[in-house]
Amino acid sequence: MIQTIRGTRDILPEDIPLWHRIEDVAREAFRRYGFAEIRTPIIEKTELFARGVGESTDIVNKEMYTFVDRAREDRDGESITLRPENTASVVRAYLQHKMFADRSPGELTRLYYVGPMFRRERPQAGRYRQFYQIGAEVMGDSDDPAIEAEVIEMLDWFLRELGITETTLLINSVGDATLREEYLGRLRVAIEPDLSRYCADCHHRYKTNALRVFDCKNPDCRPLIAGLPTITDSLDGASREHFEQFKAHLDARGITYTVQPEMVRGLDYYTRTAFEIIGSTGLGAQNTIVGGGRYDGLAETLGGPPTKGFGFAFGLDRMVMALPETISRDLRAAGAPDIFVVCMGEAARQHAYHVVRELRRAGLVVILDFADRKMKKAMALADKSRARHALIIGENEVNEGRYALKNLTSGEQESLAVSDIIIKLQRN
Ligand code: HAM
Predict the structure, then answer these.
(1) Residue 389 reports pLDDT greater than 70
(2) Cβ < 6 Å from ligand 1: which residues?
(3) Would you say the C-alpha torsion 142, 145, 148, 150 has a positive or negative sign?
(4) CA 85–ligand 1 middle distance (angstroms)
(5) Tens digits of per-residue pLDDT, 277-318?
(6) Do the beta carbons of residue 216 and residue 59 sit within 8 Å?
(7) Cβ atoms 127, 286 nearer than 8 A
């Protein structure tokens, strides 16, 4: 029997109501804050991510699904990659479609996306090779920290609306590109004396991009890393001022946060503000639900004009896991049918087609049993369908135009005309 590929999975019908709920609340948040949806391809040129996300990151270095797309066997193909994230693609689209043209000073483009991403990571609970993100990007010529606070306020509303309250917002500033160069030099000097005690991955990071040692999860490296100078301690005046203003905007909105100087995020495009939202319950080791930050300069890296950007993405898989159990249970129950229709005999079934059509036109969720079976068996199926009511249609019912509606929770049964069934169930 053929099964799913390692790190991928089917999202089964019983979980779909949870996914829909998260998607619906996210779309509502985006609507209120003026974000428009964009859908970009799932495959892009490898170069987009190599340049955008950064050659030295784990994502580009070891986690991308990259293929050579050979148009003809005898020609050199083009290297293409299943997207590991979507910020680079959205910035590419912003540039490709010249969304910056006719831009007034301070005018912002607000885009959001929903879809699968691919990273060849070691699979575990909450970490998949195909996972789903919902994300948003704000682009323009302004790097006002008020934009950052507004985006985080939107996330705050979204999480509350879903009933996810046990979260922590971690923030940091990773400075600008010039500072990064200077800081990287100092970081290498600090690592060097102990270099032999770091893991092989860190050796590689030391050579390619020393900042990435902060991503290392190796328990032998952690104590060494804890003693290194952080980028936050070395911020230049302008980045420091930006960070102070960002915090003041969060304070003014009553949003609480923790400053986490070691948080550098796993992608190279970040400048200044970086943030993560950590969930507390039920998530295990993969408890980072949201990640985001500022990426001024990414557009230039991709060949575009100077552009500022700020955004985030959250993992839908992890957001589903972060939903409180009581809420998940209610969402699953809400997906159940209103009515399971049981017909006694062929004449009743012919009649039932019309009844069922009327009920559905009134917006009720109705399942019609097409098979002939004994009453007991039919009622067992109605229970199994989790329907709230069974509607029994037999010869008498057809003649009278009234049908037996049984509440499957209370057992209470009454005889009603279609119009009364609609009134009764719509009221519920
Ligand atoms: P990221 O931190 O790489 O950022 O991913 C964002 C979120 O996607 C994570 O916090 C996590 O919830 C989810 N995620 C990542 N990898 C996996 C995985 N293997 N399995 C399940 N969930 C996963 C970005 O992707 C940036 N593009 C975010 C961004 C947008 N920054 C600015 N704009």
Answers:
(1) yes
(2) 85-87, 119, 121, 127-128, 131, 133, 135, 137, 266-267, 288-293, 295, 311-315, 317-318
(3) negative
(4) 7
(5) 999 867 888 899 999 999 999 999 999 999 999 999 999 999
(6) no
(7) yes
Amino acid at 77: G
Give the residue among 99, 143, 152, 427 at the shortest CA–CA distance from 294: 143
Which ligand 1 atom is the nearest neighbour of the CA of 288? Answer: 10
Residue 238: both structure tokens together = 């302008």
Q: How much is the pTM?
A: 0.92
Contacts of 220 (CB under 8 A, 6+ apart): 197, 198, 199
Tell me, in angstroms, the distance from the centre of ligand 1 to residue 62's CA.
16
Beta-carbon-side half-sphere exposure of residue 169 (alpha carbons within 13 Å): 22
What backbone phi and psi angles, to 5 degrees, belong to 407?
-75, 115
Q: Under 8 Å CB-to-CB from 165, ≥6 apart: which residues? A: 159
By most ligand atoms within 8 Å of CB, the mutation choice from 35, 40, 131, 143 for ligand 1 is 131
Q: Contact 176/271 with Cβ under 8 angstroms?
A: yes
Side-chain half-sphere CA neighbours of 226 within 13 A: 7
DSSP assigned state of 342:
E
Residue 116 CA to residue 118 CA, distance in Å, equals 7
Beta bridge partners of 389: 339, 407
H-helix or E-strand containing 26? helix 16-32
Model confidence over 178-219: pLDDT tens digits?
Answer: 888 888 889 999 999 999 999 998 998 898 888 889 888 889
Identify residue 333 by its one-letter amino acid code. Answer: A
Ligand 1 centre distance from Cα of residue 159 (Å): 17
* Cα angle value 132/135/141 (rounded, 5°): 155
The alpha carbon of 262 and the centre of ligand 1 are apart by a number of angstroms equal to 18
